[in-house]
Amino acid sequence: MVPFLAVQNNYSMNPDTFLLDQVERFSNRWQKLTGLDCFWWARICQKLLYISILGALFALIFDDYISLTEKEAREALAKNAVNPERVRSMAVRLIVVILSVCVQPIIFRLIILHRIQSTPELNIVVFSAFVVFTSMTALYYFIACTPLPPAKSKVRKWLESGIEFLRETLTPKPRRKLAPIPVPSR
Length: 186
Description:
Elements: H1 15-34, H2 38-51, H3 55-78, H4 85-88, H5 90-112, H6 120-144, H7 154-170
């Protein structure tokens, strides 16, 4: 396990750390807002892999991997440490980012500039490759995030306060019974 203080933020030397910190910042904000953590996003990315052409192959690999990584991350969080996947999968994340960021624009540019004859089949393959690389990149980054400790989300707080307001507003108030006013005798 890597303690929180051991993670350095030297972005000029390691762009992976910069990207991971940005994804984790987004994930933490999302978790505070909705209560859904980085592993929810990882599962969304996994579903995008399912619907792409190569998704069936990746699904076999990543299905148990996310559950295992989530379990390890929660155990690390209980010991006040970062997600071990943050350090363990850095090389893989860098390779996927390079493929995603560098290779895809070249392929798209070649097709857009008509240097490669575009056909509907080629467009489907290129789009599927784009979905695969983008989903895989996001998946690796969301898996490596360290989730916040469980807490009530802002959305839940808003819903609970809204429900309480509606209960107070819509609940009929008990009628006051009027007490007779004694009339002074003359």
